[in-house]
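Example 3.
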Amino acid sequence: MSLLRVENVTKRFGGLVAVDNVTAEIAHGEMMAIVGPNGAGKTTLFNLINGVFFPDEGKIWFEDVDVTRYPAYRRAHLGIGRTFQISRPFGSATVQENIAIGAMFGAAGGEIDVDQAMDMADHYIGLIGLSSHRDKLAGGLTPIEKKMMEIARALAMKPRLLLMDEAMAGMNPKDIDKMVDFIKRIREEEGIAIVALVEHIMRAVAGLAERVLVMHQGAKLVDEPTKAALSDPRVIEVYLGVPPGEADA
Amino acid sequence: MFLEQLSGNLFQGLILGAVYGMATMGLSLIFGVLRVVNVGHGAFMMVGAYCSLWAFHGLGVAPILALPLAMLVGMGLGLIFYYTVIRRLIKAPELATLLATFAFGVILEETIKLIATSESRGFNWDIGKIDFGFTILPYTKLIAFAGSVLIALLLYWWFNKTRAGMAMRCVVEDDQGARVCGINVEWEYALSFSLGLGLTVASGVLLTMFIPVGIQPYMGGGYTLKAFVIAVLGGLTSPYGAFFGGLVFGLLENGSYSLFAQIPGLEPFAMTRFFSFVMLLVILLFRPTGLLRAR
Amino acid sequence: MGAARKYAPLLPVLGLYAALFAIGLLVPGKWQLIAQLVFYCALGQAFNLFMGMTGYVDFGYVAFMGVGAYGMAVTVSSLSDKGLGMGVIGIGLILSVVFAILLSLAVGAVALRLRGAYFAIATIGVNEGFRYLIEGARIWNGSEGIIFSSQLRELIGREAAMSLSTFWADVMVFGVAGIATVLTIVYMRGKIGYALAALRMDEDAAKVMGINVTRFKIIAFITSAALAGLLGATAWAVKLTYVYPADVFGIHYTVEAIIIVLLGGAGTLLGPIVGGLIYGVSKYYLAVYLPGFQLLVFAPVIIAVIVLFPEGTVGMIKKNLLGTALEKYIL
């Protein structure tokens, strides 16, 4: 049984086909990267998996449950967590409260009570190294801190699948390396599958991801182990605009 | 007998509907461009009604001549309100602009009450009528109808044939893109807001062609609700949708009045107003994007 | 958080109400003013439970107060000759809550599916619409309303009816304020408080976090409506012994509720109370010195609050007390 299976999923916005007949599967604990240029449909695909909107065609299965028409909060209860490309912290709440909200409503199907959630939040705050900011309002954090807090908030939901949208955008190489180590750690400790979304294959993701799914204009271009994807001519063409070999012409 | 009365009623409803529709165009324009809901809509119409009253009693001229004045008053108010308040609330949650426009309405009502007292006023501008056989239409109402249609056409021309109007449309489509094209989005917002309010105040003048009595500071409330029903009917963001929505509403309102009048034990006037409220809920429930797919 | 810390904010609130009660009883001639102030506090607290905590504005809110008043009026006028005595008042209170809840379910079924501005539009006609239904279909005597003073006298005797309308009705309003206070703090400290705060700050992110926003909105909406019903039943019906549709569905009560919550601080415990006091006292003195000017003064105040300090008085105080010892008393 795969963890997530997306089957022939299509999403249109007016005349634009944002996601075009995509099929993909993620296994428990797997680490996958979805890459593609701007407008390739990556975030829309995330939104479909997550429940932000429903597909026009196709089905989505989470652990053999048909979640195609489940609203976002039910998918959260089942174990799908998500971070956003542009952080969306609950600005007027403290860091602890933010993370606790994730625990309270996301973990264990929403059965965790307030005090338990606060304790869980403390654990995750420690994990991301923001213990000194525990009672600070989330709106006052730096962008990097907000990103980390969002990850902790998503983790507090005890997801089995974590969708990370451009988690490393705008970071310098040192921070990227730290983030990569962090992701490796949580994957091992929490045993969750992670699907990371990036604009282009970076050496960091290449080091982390077991498999890469390349999207182009809404459709799936390739879906193969990382090493193969990196040297796949189709992928190179999508990024450089010319087939390999002609790039120097 | 009933049929003749009904068709007369429906005809009148259509005529009135044009005025209602024109009155709502401002509301839809403001929402379409700025995503601001003018909850004080009725109060602005009330201001227009007073312009009309003043023209007749104060200046002794045909009230319809108050139309350009009302337009200017509305635009002036719009610029003032935009630059003092709305501009600062663009980034604020929706709640903020809702309450702000509501407060504008209250300010207008209370100010007019101070100036003119809450006494209900009116005028009688009788210039004859035209007999259609199944119904009689005073020329005043015909003028209002013609005025509404004219203004709707002018607006259409403005949006599609003038640079200023097309710039406004660009802002509706994509305000970032509009900026990149060199359009001064800030100014377009201000202009839309003031144009929208100008239309709303002007519609108050046209309304008095139909109902030249009962002009008092708090008369706007009922029209706010009607305007929302019409706006939602027409798709909330489209001024043209609002115009056609107005026609539909006029028909429905008068038609329902005839119907309710037939049922004993019911008060048709009150029931019609209840009915418009139910219409609003029904549309919002089933087709919040509007019954009419206007651009 | 320990129970003491959790419920510490109740102390200033209960203390305030106790002080008001004492002043009202002990200072001659001030009872009416105090009663009026507590009415505004209760109104603000009830309204805050939905608007303050979710950020959605229900422009038709007064409709719940209106049906609550009718609930009491209908009960007293129909059960006065059954020999049930004061129990009828209790039944009236229950019926007023039932009416309010039923109306809120009907309105909520449509309105709560809508976001932001659409929600406000959907609610804008509720009070008017319901009033016109009553008048149009001649329900409950239509536009003539219900006068039940004689039935009340028949029910509990002349003396009791008198003291009920002039004193105990106001005490009941204190009671409603107390209930509102308890409900507010229980909600704010419980999961529902966090859910509402999250959906107020970012509804879509809240959904992704596993919050069933619709469910929580409904709970807050119904609670707020039920309290409004109680308020209408006590402050209007029992106090005046008559109910007219034109009176009890007037939009200006919603306006007042908005002013009170905004001035005091939306989404806080103390805010609506502070707002109620400021508004009540201001209105009283304005009525004395500048009669007829109240709304003209308050409307720009609303705008000033929205633009300059949207978090309200208590919100500002909270910001300034962050990190101090007093913080735990201000919720």
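The longest strand of chain A covers residues 16-26. Chain A has nine helices and ten strands.
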